[in-house]
Amino acid sequence: MSSHRPLRYLLLLILLIILMVMSGFASYRIAQQLGLADLQTTGLHRLDLYTASLEREIGKYAFLPGTLGLERDVLALLGKSNHEKSLKLVPQVNAYLEQLNERAGTLSIYLIDTNGHVVASSNWRRADSFVGEELAFRPYFREAMENGHGRFFGIGTTRGEPGYYLASKLTDDNETLGVAVIKVSLEQLEKSWTTVETPAMVSDENGVVILGSVANWKFTTLRPLEEKTRTAFDQTQQYNRRALKPLGLKELRELDHGARLVSIAKDTPEIASVYPVAGRFLAQSRPLPGTPWTLTVLSHLKQVDDIAQSRAAVVVVITALLFMFGLMANDRRRHLKDRLAAREALQQAHDELERKVNERTADLSATNTQLQEEITERIRAERTLRAAQDELVQAGKLAVIGQLSTGIAHELNQPLAALRTLSGNGVRFLDRGDLNTVRTNLERIAQLTDRMGLITGQLRTFARKSSGQLQAVPLCNALDNSLALLEQRLIHANAEVRRYCPLPEPVALCDVNRLEQVLINLIGNALDAMEGQPSPLIELGCESIGEQARLTVRDHGPGLDDTALSHLFEAFFTTKQAGGGLGLGLTISADIIRDFGGTLTGTNHPEGGALFTLEIPLIHEAEQHE
Ligand code: ADP
């Protein structure tokens, strides 16, 4: 995937460049077209304006040559009736023309007779006066003679001054007398153009620029002149043999409404001008009414080009930005799509998980119900077991009592016999009146019955079913009670008991009745093991080790063999002869101690004999009070 990335970037870059170029080019063309349309409208307005001002300027003089025909002296001068008389009028008419010329602000005013001779002129005073000149070849003269009016642009033959000639035929009673001519300076006409904002020019029917807002353009040609035309110019001396250079205008393209795109070559040296005079222009032309001339307005394209360029630049930048924006939007869309897909996948995984969890929960609840049933079953079984165990404990106790019964019977027989003797003696001493001996006997009887009560009390306590309640039990005291119950057996076996009890006496949390049952069982086993020995010895220990109280019962018998060691606490394991033991003693004892939260272990002492160790949790003083 990542290896495609640089290629993708390259393609995007190429696409961006193509888009930028295309949009730039298109916007440039559109902006240029719009600019050209604007320029065309402005150009037409200017054309209207310049045409109007030129027409007004020319119109001012149009009537002037005709008015000369109203002057009597003028008519008399041109009249052919009396040559002598008319010659006398020349100075008068000259003066009149001079005056009129001054007032009208024209270049010159003169009269030509029907033969083409200038008979009177406003410039009669000057050495180069027109008077006497032959002007029959001038087109305006011929036109006026033929049509009544003649208009002509040309350069003066005498002074080489360019001007506009307005000629009118003068008649008297339908007789042609001659032609009155007014020459208007072109500068006069150009005056109205001083404020133009763009180059403008007037070309005559030959394509020669006769009026121009740019000085250098005057007397240049807009199109190449044919040789025939040049020869005609020589005859009419229209341009007074001036060199008519081409302006250097080249047509580039035709546009709508007669507009053209043209270019004008740079003229050297550069002309100082308020507007550009070289480069590409929009040229708009219109014929000037009443003249054979054409007015042309040139609007420079630089402004349009500049605007089109800047618009194109803006469009290129916008295109680039839009492209980037598009890319970003696309990236974002893809990112969102990915995220949506991921979320969907996650949702699916979640649904799947939930389904599985539901399944498992259903399984679990089934298992749970099953387990609960099993637990209830176990509890029930345990209760049954506990009841059986209690029964067993009781049975064990009764067995012990059975074992003890011989000793107890012996124990009771002795005081009973003594009671019998003492009471018999007592009667006899009472008869003798020996009251002191009777008192002594009675006191002895009381002592004996107390002792008998003690023995039967202990037996009753032992045989009683345990409450199952745990209490603080002083351990040495429990040892003593157990020894008291076994007293007869110990005496009978001639056994020595060594008891080690520290002070303060350790106190453990247990059931005194059951603990004594365990101790009696252990001491009983010890006596059994040492049966037949001349001086059996039992060592009883009691001590506190950390949080535990430890009670030990050690004998000096044969100890435990391997079979006994491995099956010691198993129910019904016994090595004793039938009637000797049930093999339940140690099993029940271990169970009782486990109930107290303790342990019972049996091993061989390194110096011989069996050693049974009993460990149960200690109770500290503060706990005892609670
Ligand atoms: P019982 O006394 O009814 O046999 P116990 O559970 O008390 O049942 O004892 C199981 C067996 O463990 C005895 O039969 C005996 O073999 C052995 N045993 C118990 N205590 C001692 C001991 N102090 N010395 C040697 N063997 C013993």
UniProtKB/TrEMBL annotation:
Catalytic activity: ATP + protein L-histidine = ADP + protein N-phospho-L-histidine
This enzyme's EC code(s): 2.7.13.3
One GO molecular-function entry: kinase activity
UniProt xrefs under InterPro entries: dCache_1 (IPR033479), HATPase_C_sf (IPR036890), HATPase_dom (IPR003594), His_kinase_dom (IPR005467), HisK_dim/P_dom (IPR003661), HisK_dim/P_sf (IPR036097), Sensor-like_sf (IPR029151), Sig_transdc_His_kin-like_C (IPR004358)
Residues annotated as domain Histidine kinase: 407-620
Primary localization: membrane
Designated name of the protein: histidine kinase
